[in-house]
Design brief:
Length: 191
């Protein structure tokens, strides 16, 4: 957890980074301090980090705005500058597929793109009117699921298909979607 914003802002808390390691024995569970962010001004808005190839990547503001990016190397416990191409194209909600590919939706253009780490650039996957105003996305099993239109729409994009295909899932009448997750397949054990 990298901290930052809130009604009781404090600079040292805004820079803080902590980890809860579930691999430890239960009796050893607890928050561990990790390398802090370089300065508290980075954390201007609530933005989720995404796991990408053993690192956590995050930007400091949502949407199409001038922003900074930071990359936390989990193994080395240190923060790095985000590559220029990565931060330049991070114009909306982001998610990773199996921590190997980052996807982002430009919430103004409705463009779903994926990051090419070798070329440090974003490649367009599909552009859809339905993806405009996307607020949150998740990725799993070859699909991107996006919440848009203030929780009134869920758009699913199958990125395995070429060209990518999509469909809309309507939330139950009178309900608003606030988050979407792709859960792992669970196998029930017969006793």
């Amino acid at each position: 957890m990298a901290s930052g914003v809130g009604s009781h802002y404090q600079g040292d808390i805004a820079r803080s980074m902590e980890r809860w390691d579930l691999n430890k024995k239960r009796e050893s569970w607890g928050w561990e301090n990790k390398a802090p962010l370089k300065d508290g001004r980075f954390s201007r808005e609530e933005v989720e980090a995404v796991g990408y190839r053993g690192k956590l990547c995050m930007v400091n503001v949502k949407g199409n705005a001038v922003k900074e990016g930071a990359v936390y190397d989990v193994e080395l416990d240190k923060w790095e500058e985000m590559p220029q191409g990565m931060v330049a194209g991070w114009n909306g909600p982001a998610a990773t597929m199996d921590e190997d590919v980052i996807y982002v939706i430009d919430e103004v253009k409705g463009r779903l793109s994926k990051y090419d780490g070798e070329k440090d650039c974003w490649e367009k996957v599909i552009e859809l009117e339905q993806l405009k105003r996307a607020e949150q996305i998740t990725a799993g099993r070859g699909k991107i699921c996006a919440i848009s239109a203030k929780g009134e729409k869920i758009i699913v994009v199958d990125v395995r298909d070429k060209p990518a295909r999509f469909w809309e899932v309507a939330p139950p009448p009178g309900m608003e979607v606030v988050a979407v997750h792709v859960l792992p397949r669970m196998i029930s054990r017969q006793h």
